[in-house]
Amino acid sequence: MENKPIVTCAGDQGLFTSLYTSLAQQLPREPMEWRRTYGRAPKMIHLEANFVQFKEELLPKEGNKALLTFPFLHIYWTDCCDTEAYKSTVKEDMMRWQNSLRTHGSADWVIIVVETNDTKKKNKTNILPRSSIVDKIRSDFCNKQNDRCVVLSDPLKDSSRSQESWNSLLLKLRTLLLMSFTKNLGRFEDDMRTLREKRTQPGWSFCEYFMVQEELAFVFEMLQQFEDALVQYDELDALFTQYVLNFGAGDTANWLGSFCAPVRSWSGLLLRRPIDMEKRDGIQRGEASLLDLRSYLFSRQCTLLIFLQRPWEVTQRALELLHNCVQELRLLEVSVLEGALDCWVFLSCLEVLHRIEGCCDQAQLAANCSHTVGLWAYATDKLKSLGELCGLVSEKGPTSEDLNRTVDLLAGLGDERPETGESCWLVLRTPALSINDFKKELSHAAMEMYRAIGRLRSARLVGKSLAEFYMRKGDRERAETFLQEALKSYVSEGWSLPVTHTRKQIAECQKLLGRTEDYLQTSALLAGDVNLTTEERKHFCQEILTFAGKSGDHSNKVTLSMGVFAQLTRLQFHPATASVHSGAILQVELTLRCLMPVSVHIQQVAASIHFDVDHGGTHGRSKGAQRQTNPGTVEFIQGNSSAGPPSSSAAGPSLELDEIQDRSPSDNSLNSTGVVCKNTHLIMRRHDSNSPPDTPNCVSPPTVAMKEGAQMLKVQDVKLEPGNNSIIFTAPSGQPGTYTLRQLCATVGQVQFVLPHIYPSVQYEVYSQEPQLTVEPLSEPLLAGLPQMVKFTLLTGHYAVKKGDALQLSNTDTMPILPSTSCTARTSNPAAGCVLSIQSSDKVTSISLPPTPPYHTLEFQLEVLCIIPSGEVTLLFDNEIIFKQKTDLMVKSLCVCPQMSIDCPWSIYSTLLALTFYIPFKTKHSLLSAGNRKYIQVCVQNVSDVNFTLAEVKLTEKQHASLELQSLNTKEQQLLCSKHSVFCLWEVRWKDDLPSCLQCVFSANFSPLNQDVSAFKPFHYQFQLERVTTLYSVRAEILPPAGEQHCRSGFLCGLEVCITRLTEPAEGEMAEESKTDTDGLKTTKLMYEVADSSSNWAVCGKSSGMVSMPMTANATHKVQIEVMPLFAGHLPFPKIKVLKYLPHTAAVAIQPDPDSCVENDSLSLLDKTLDDQGDTASIRSRGSVHSVGSGDQQQKGVAMPRLEPFSPGQVFNHSHARQVLVLPATDDHIMEVNAT
């Protein structure tokens, strides 16, 4: 469309003609920003103009809404420089021009005054300055609009002044044009909007409104604003569509009656012309049909989209238009000749395709075939409908009725259009052979495009239509190929009825082509298809049985898929563990759901087995729990497809994973484990890029031969009824290993139905287990010193216990086996037990075993006794006594772990047996002193959960016969409850001298509570007491302050400590501790310490010191210490501790404990004299030996003095439990009484 905005030119036409070329070329060069109303985005546009001579007829008349013929700007041209000429002619002409514009309401004008040098030369004497003429014009015509008068200087010269003048003029013209556009388009849009708002009033016409809005679209197109122009047509399209939808809903409009008229022409779209004036005139007159309106509207949209370089949107809109028009004709109930819509759609598709081909090259068409393939397919469908309607594809040719219908359709096509192509226009006039070829070409073109863009489903649907075409032509082989492709889409998407229909067509083709195996496979699918009637299913089933009943060569057997005949739904093992020992009976029960409509006799049902030697199972496992657990029942999940057996997922077969283990051949230990895929050949196979993976329901599955082997499950003569059937096999279990069921085959005469792979994986295990002997206590825990029952369990495994086989148990002194005459062995089969023969000697106990078959359990019980070792704890470690912490008791108890070896008849190696016995008692002793009197206390603690009775409690001394231990225990028998203790006490009496070392043995008899006397067992505890003689006695007295009868809190009191030597020194003591002074008297040094841990006393002055004690009997040393009571009451005496001070030359009797060292500040204590030690801090003793000195000196080997505590009983403190009365500081007593 070459319309341009109209600009009128008045005045000097010769002057304008000389400047026209330059003006027309330079005006559109520079873009201008067009700011529109209503907040619409500004745009940059290039302005062009159609300059025409001014005529009053061009001025718009009132009521004329045409914008294409509207003059947007009026220009008056003059080059007058003579005042007289201006006044006589130019001014009057300008006035007439302005009066005409004012009469028609045109306010968009401009006066251009052209100045040249030639004009100046001709009128040198009579002219006024140019500015005077311009000023005169402005004062006469542009009083309020001085910018409406523009001067153009020397327009034909090439100078900077001329170029500047041109630029100013062009800018002014562009500005005035834009202002005119904005004003007039805004006014037009307001009028159009007003007209649209009146659409609900009677008499409103869509065609009239259509012409108005199209006028606006023309203006936008004229301004090259194609997007805005397209919006106008889209609004008209949407408005008309809404009226049609409202009509279908019952809301009618009067103007729609013209569009409900019967369709007389169906010549299709016309896109080659920018404007179809014939159809536009019909719309303007209100005589256009629905197809005419839609065709014209789409042609305008197509033109604008081509201008916008969006040709592929044309194809998308075209496809929507064709489908929508068919629906709109039905909604408006428009009468259309049968087949007319097919002709209109067919020709429209071809017209759009040819229009796209005309504006795009072949490379663009090939790259964007996804946009055009829909039109190709739609055209193919409509051509097929036309051929069937007119009888052009019939093998017998068209009938007279078909010919009449064809003539009627040709009448509505109108004249031929050579630009559309002869093959498109003459298709309905060709014979059947030509239309078939044309349809085939269209179908193949559509299929290739669909495949190129990856739309396989659409390509296969077109192929399905093409297959029916080939079937009518008798080309069954090509038809089957397309049907198989279509079947893949139907099955993958779950369309059961199309699947059934397509399979029937495939079966017909295969039967006529003589493809027996494929035909039987398809027949089996159809026989199990519930969408067919029972008679049809029986027919296809009989086809299979008829072929199976033929006698012939067995090598010509046909192999079909098991899934089309029967489905494996369940598999169950008996026993359910799916794990048996070698030689045992294992049954496998299969549940098959027969899909056939009638009962079928099966000659043989067989299952192939893959055998894998399991080295772990062959050479033995330590425990049965280590064997792989196989499910006893396997459910096979089936799909829900009603069109026969379910297909596998379109993504391919499922993964079949299995565990692999790498075990050491020496000790069967697990080195590594992993996962392996067992059907990699199915998962990793390459699929065709143009088709999804094959499934059993799409095409005939590949032939799978049944692998014959030694390991097979077979059942003969089975009758399968429709529905579920149970088949029981006896599985082989001779050789140990893992047996996996791989394939299933049902043989019906010459036909074999094979399930190529059983998934999920089903396997059972046959194991060969080594004999296992376990020994465990009958009750926990085992107690030492009491007879305990021990249970022997023998799992015979693959070994058969024969008569004469015996277990040889080595005897130990710490755990003898008690003889028994009623030891009974019990086996898992038979139930009755038998008496065991037990023979004992000094070293071996022999237990004869009864005959027991393999894989049985033999159990018997023996009574054993663990001897409690006697002695102190330090001695018990040599007899394998260990400490164990029992968390529930939170006490430390002793246990004994004796070991014995067992020789078994099935092994050349001995088995070591270790049982843990807990000693029920924890025993400890202590030496108590009361002056020179000595007492020995023994504490027996029951750490077990059993209550005991203690009897005949004794304490003896082994080395000194003159020593008497007088028992102070009054009861002969004592109850020792669980977690409780019993204390026993003896007084030591002697005649001459008390030995320094005592070897004592504590003995008692014990038995569980409420047992007979015969059940008592002895218990011994040996211990040694050293340095039991009392060497020193300590007496203390607290003296009140002077003048006081009692001590008072807060006052200093005197503490007098008296240390007395009771006995003469022994020989060892003389050599180790004594020192001879100047008087020849043997002395020893003692250190004393006064401390009060209860904070009742404050020691004032010295708290510790050393004394030199003569080593003679009754030698006494007194120490005075000042103390202060801190509280009133009966306060216990401060604690007084006496230690031995050993010089650096004395030998170390006991290794010092690292935790018992005195702090380093005690070194200064020894460096000072006794008189200077009054303020020394008390020495803290935490161990048996105290070294005085720094740790660094000890580590360097320097001998240092040390402190050593006396043994229990060597020092007796008479004031240990004494108390003294301390009075308060004052006798003031205050009582607070609150009265309310």
Automatic annotation (TrEMBL):
Enumerate the residue ranges of region (Disordered): 616-673, 1174-1197
Cite the TRAPPC10/Trs130 N-terminal domain residue spans from the record: 2-314
Major place of residence: Golgi
> Can the keyword rRNA-binding be found in this entry's annotation?
no
UniProt xrefs under InterPro entries: Ig_TRAPPC10, TPR-like_helical_dom_sf, TRAPPC10/Trs130, TRAPPC10/Trs130_C, TRAPPC10/Trs130_N
In what ranges is there compositional bias, type Low complexity?
641-654, 1178-1191
All copies of the TRAPPC10/Trs130 C-terminal domain together span 996-1223
The biological processes this protein is annotated with in GO are: early endosome to Golgi transport; intra-Golgi vesicle-mediated transport
The leader peptide range reads none
Q: Which Pfam families match?
A: Ig_TRAPPC10, TRAPPC10, TRAPPC10_1st
Question: What GO terms fall under cellular component here?
Answer: cytosol; TRAPPII protein complex
Location of this chain's protein in the cell: Golgi apparatus
- Keywords assigned by UniProt? Golgi apparatus, Transport
Please list the residue ranges annotated as the TRAPPC10 Ig-like domain: 774-917
Q: What is this protein called?
A: Trafficking protein particle complex subunit 10
Which organism does this sequence originate in? Answer: Lates calcarifer (Barramundi)
